[in-house]
Amino acid sequence: MEPYRSRVVEPIRVTTRAEREEYIRAAGYNPFLLAAEQVMIDLVTDSGTSALSVAQWAAMHGSDESFTGSRSFEKFQEVARELFGHRHVIPTHQGRAAEHLLAQAVLRPGDVVLANTLFATTRQNFEEAGATCRDLPIREALVRGSDHPFKGNIDLKALEAELAAAGERARLVVLTVTDNSRGGQPVALANIRSASELCRRQRVPLWLDAARVAENSFLNTLRAPECAGMTARQVARETFALVDGLFMSMKKDGLGNVGGVMALDDDTWAEAIRHRLLVSEGIPSAGGLAGRDLECMRVALDEMFDADHLAYRIEATAALGQELEQAGVPVLTPFGAHAVYIDGRAFCPHLPDEQLPAWSLSVALYLESGVRGWETGNVMMGRLDPATGQWRWPELDLLRLAIPRRVYSQSHLAYVARAVGELFERRSEVRGLRFVYRPPALPQFIARFEPVGGG
Ligand code: F0G
Whose Cα sits closest to atom 12 in ligand 1? Predict the structure, then answer.
C-alpha cells in the first residue's frame, strides 16, 4: 500500500479521444507542448512533480527570507554537510544550473569528460564549455533484456583506457546515479569504488550526478551482497565519500518542486563556482532560491532515505513493469526505481527509425489514454551527421513512463498498464511521425512533427 495518505487533492480532468486528437494536433504532435490539464496521468517526468510532505510544508512556513546569511541556509548547509561529507555546500535553483556553473568554472576547450552516461542537459552544458564528452556504459546497458543488476555501471576497462588516452586533458569523470538516460539503472557501490581508485591514480576528479542517489543506494541494498543489511543512507554516505564532489537536482529524489545543490572540498573550484553563481544565479547562500525552498530541501535530505518510501516506490514501479511484461510489452529490465521504459522499436517494428518509433508510441499512448510519457530515444539523442548527411540513432529508442513521487495511486498505474497493454494489442495501428521542425539543441522540448502519410 502507499505509505502515506492524501490530505489535499487535485482533480484530474477526464478527456475524450476526440479532444485529445485536437490537442495533440495543435501541439505539433509533441507531448511536451500539451497543456498539463490536457493530460490525465502525467508520467512525463519524476522531476519537480513530487507531492510535498506535512514536514516540508511546516518547515517552509518557518523559513527565513533574509537576503543574505539566512537561518534557512545555515540549517540546510549543516544537514547537507553532514550527509554529503564535503565542506562546501552551494545551493542552485535546479540541477542544470549546477551543471552550468561547474562547466563554466572548471572546463576549458579541449578538456575531456568521461561518464557512465551524462544526462542531456549535463552533456549540453559541458559541450558548450568546449569539452569533449564520452559515455562509457557497460555493454549490458545496451541490451534491453540483459538481467545485469547494475546496468548503470561505467565500463572500468574503457575508463582506464580513456583516462590514459586523454592524459592531461582528462578534467572530470561523472557517474550519473541512477543512469536516467539508459533506463534508470543503478550503479553498484563497488563500481563507484573502482572508478574512484582509477580517478585518484590519474588525479582526475570524480563527481556524482546525484539526482537519484537515494534510489540508487536503495537498489544497492537490494542487489549488492556487500550492501545487504545497510540502510540506503549508509550506502549513500559511502558513495559520497568516494567522490570529490557532486551536483544534484533536488527535484527528483530530493522531493522538491525546485532546487539543486553542489557539494565539494576543493577550495579553488568552490571559489570559481561561487563567482559564477554570483554573476548569474544569486548569492552563494541562496543560489537563486527562496529561504522556504532551502527549508523544503533540508527536510527532503532526510525524507528521501525513508525506507518505507523507497521500498514502496521500487515495488510500485516494478509492479507496473511486470504487468506490462505479462501483456507482452517489450520493457527494459531489470526495473529501476523512477520509471518503466518501453522499447519503441520492438513495440512498433513496422516503423523505421526515421519514423521515430518511441516518439510515435508516446503520441499513440496519449491519444489512447491521456497518459503522457517522455521519449528518450531517436528524437532526444538522434544526431544528423554533418559529414554524411545521415542520421545516427541511439542504441535504444525508449519511451519512459516516469513516476512522480507520492502523487499517483496504484489504481492510476493499473490504468496506465491497461492502456499500454491494449495499445500493444493494436500496435500495428501506431502511426509514424516525422520532423516538421527540429531545433539544433535539446529538440524534444520544442520540435514539431506530422504524421507520415498525412492526417
Ligand atoms: N541529471 C539527471 C540525471 C537528470 O535526470 C536531470 C533532469 C538533470 C540532471 C537536470 O536537472 O532538471 O533539475 O535541471 N531530468 C529530468 C527528467 C528533466 O525528467 O529526467 P534539472
Answer: 95
